[in-house]
Amino acid sequence: MTSRTAPASPQSPASSDLSGLPMPLPDPAEVGRLYDRFTALGDASLGENLHFGYWDSPDSTVPLAEATDRLTDMMADRLRVGPGARVLDLGCGTGAPGVRTARRTGAHVTGVSVSAEQIRRAEALAEGAGLAGRMTFRQANALELPFPDGSFDAVLALESIIHMPDRGRVLAEAGRVLRPGGRIVLTDFLERAEIPAAGRPAVERYLRDFMMTMVSAEVYPPLLRAAGLWLEELLDISDHTLRQTFVLLSERIRKARAELTGRYGEEMVDQFDPGDLVGIEEFGYLLLVAAKPGR
Questions:
Q1: CB 110 within 8 A of CB 88
Q2: Which one of 46, 256, 257, 266 has the minimum C-beta count within 10 Å?
Q3: What is the pLDDT of residues 177-230, one digit of tens each?
Q4: How far apart are CA 203 and CA 236, in angstroms?
Q5: Which of 2, 289, 246, 294 has the alpha carbon at shortest distance from 158?
Q6: What are the structural domains, with CATH classification, of the chain?
Q7: Which residues pair with 286 in a beta bridge?
Q8: In Å, what is the CA distance from 270 to each residue of 102, 235, 264?
């Protein structure tokens, strides 16, 4: 017998319990509307990959587009899947990470997003890549996934859990749809230390504008245990991701500011520019791998 509703997590904490920033919890419907609105601007500034990059060293000159592919590959490799496997891309964006994962692993990828516009674009991208037969997309809420128990061999959640109001419930749903032995690989925003007073306005602005929250690292072990998952890897990769992404993205937006403002408006461009976050080292980024026990 299968269930489509995740059990309540043992705690459904407000975001002030997850980090030191008292931010409101995101609402999935509002997040969907946000990305319906911002997806085109993201395409124009970040390209196909609407997520952070990964650089081997702080002085690396690898372009942003290549760095975002590197982060996708790091996560896809940790899924440990091959041809014929079933992967759930939880918060699939416009489909680029899913397309790359499908090509790299040979797996069938099912992407879900709360944004109808992102689903439309993801379907078009998969079709253009010749992968429509190995990729499907659905508009769905990660808090209540429309899939039976044990439907997937792995779950990928690249910068999506930051938008979800209850991480425990998301992990419980991911665990439910995973087969025994399956793995979940995710990234999240990490409060490495208390955000200093000088940096709080920028961080709070960024989280508020994009309907996100962040965690401290110690939050995850009990949430995973409650969801029936085993922690395998928890990495702070902040020094390889955040600063260079913020710098390069801000430079790209500022160089194209006149064009972007004409197309999307000054307010949207200001919201998307992360230049004020550069140098706030307490704002971090983590990569997590967990597994469902069994074979």
A1: yes
A2: 266
A3: 999 999 999 999 999 999 999 999 999 999 998 899 999 989 999 999 999 999
A4: 18
A5: 289
A6: 23-291 (3.40.50.150)
A7: 188, 236
A8: 34, 31, 10
